[in-house]
Amino acid sequence: MASDELTRKMQSQMAAVDNPVPRPEPEKSPVRAKTREPEPDNSDSSSELSAKLTRRLDINEGNAAPRLTRVFNPYTEFKEFSRKQIKDMEAMFKRFDTGKDGFIDLMELKLMMEKLGAPQTHLGLKNMIKEVDEDFDGKLSFREFLLIFRRAAAGELQEESGLMELARLSEIDVSTQGVMGAKDFFEAKMQALSVGSKFEAEIREEKEERKRQEVEKKERQAAFKQLQSTFCS
């Protein structure tokens, strides 16, 4: 009996191996097709970088065309001031431009106001620069320095402002207003002609002064040569 039962078990196992029962396959979730994102267009940045590299190479080789820069002429832009006034302003600007970089920064302005006897707070100095800082670089160029005196002459500065103190204590007479201060068109025209004539007269005076100095120099040289020949003879 035991052998018959063992025989049946072996037969059933062999039948299971020969005819396996199919197992249900697990349901597959639908796979979403991956969409390819468009690549960013780097053509503009590449061309810009290429242009910069090309210009740098041309600069190194000396083949780059010079870029035009605006030339600032205080005598033509600030016609309301005489040449002497502008030269006085330039001398003052250079005196306090201790860094000799063509600008008056916050510390140099601080020194200037202390020398003028009107020291300002740190915030006051920043506000002074901000009032005329057209290029927002946090310092005063010579043109921006001249704007202080233009606004002072035109009455555009508050009496208690630091810029007004600077203009008042600078010992530069800017009380004569230019075309901006004229009351009507006729006065403006007449004043513009007057400023132009004064400008030309100052140029002539400078030329005459240079000629006079040249004549005196030649006379001194001639006198020295005559004295030298007298001693040598």
Structure commentary:
There is one protein chain. The protein is mostly helical and 233 residues long. Helix content is 61%, strand content 2%. The chain contains 9 helices and 2 strands, in the order ααααβααβααα. The protein has a two-stranded antiparallel ribbon with strand order 1-2. It is elongated.
Could you list some keywords that capture this structure?
mainly alpha, elongated, 233 residues, 2% strand, two-stranded antiparallel sheet
Helix/strand layout:
Elements: H1 2-18, H2 43-61, H3 74-77, H4 83-96, E1 103-104, H5 106-115, H6 122-132, E2 140-141, H7 142-153, H8 162-169, H9 185-232
Antiparallel strand pairs: 1-2
The succession of helices and strands, N to C, reads: HHHHEHHEHHH
- Helix tally? 9
Low-confidence stretches: 176-186
Helix content: 55-70%
General shape: elongated
Our estimate of the beta-strand percent is under 5%
Kindly state the mean pLDDT as a whole number?
Answer: 76
Sheet bearing the most strands, described? 2 strands, antiparallel
Radius of gyration: 43 Å
Q: Give the end-to-end Cα distance, rounded to a whole number of Å.
A: 167 Å
Gist of the model:
This protein has 233 residues and is mainly alpha-helical.
